[in-house]
């Protein structure tokens, strides 16, 4: 049984692993648990389950493998012989797990004793890099085994062809010959109401007709960042953020872990570092992005416009910063992370596919 946080649709790391299960271990029947409104995202041949139903509880009880990036909730009662793979939700940038005990504004009533009980049910934790491994071991202490094999959801980024990218851009309505900027800010714990930190209409107006913005709100945002219109396209409801990364020429974000995925894709990343003091005070980060950024940094909207208007977003300095960032955080994201997990956990193999060096990736 596979699932993602919030009982949303097929995708992310569990989705990448489910595809690898079907391809490498066809003897294992798979099922995806999601709210009924998301059932259409589940591929044919994969059983659809609705959380809270008798069928869901039965599947959880009988399943051999459980894969999730959050928690299965109260419906899960572990039995002997089950294997639970926890994928997490990407490389940790902001403080997580037990580290939130010192961040009450971000913890918001987190049941830390319950968190530790949940951690005790994990058998494996998937890790994208050494930074992730050390962080997860500290903030989620338990007896589980680390699988430092890469981020499975990034496999599709490495396997996609130029034809795939062209098809995605056409489907999204990106005008041919334009620069597509994916704007994907993270959730701000300290704000009662979420809002866009950028006037996106002003940004595209200042940059001119060569630029288009794809605006994607965080799932906790509660709605779109802006209405679609002109050269600003709202893509908050798109089911696969990986497709948006592929279709875009650059990512603009603040503190979203999506920056690690796009860096692995070797696409330019521009940080819109607004309100850094407030974010550090409430949530805190594990990486000092001001001293080790994945690309150019803009402190406000005008600086961001300047970064793109001048070409600094994809200049030589941005490329050097991205290369260093990619080397540190994307060493295993070569398109075979999910294969390595399935071969180890399901097939019991120890001689796993070797990692393709950064220089040898597309």
From TrEMBL:
Keyword Glycosyltransferase included in the entry's annotation: no
GO biological process: teichoic acid biosynthetic process
Top-rank lineage group of the source organism: Bacteria
Protein name stated in the entry: CDP-glycerol glycerophosphotransferase family protein
Family designation: Belongs to the CDP-glycerol glycerophosphotransferase family.
Membrane topology summary: Peripheral membrane protein
Any one Gene Ontology cellular component term annotated for this protein: plasma membrane
InterPro entries linked: Glycerophosphate_synth, TagF_C, TagF_N, Teichoic_Acid_Biosynth
Pfam families in the cross-refs: Glyphos_transf (PF04464)
Cell location: Cell membrane
Alphabetically ordered keywords of this record: Cell membrane, Membrane, Teichoic acid biosynthesis, Transferase
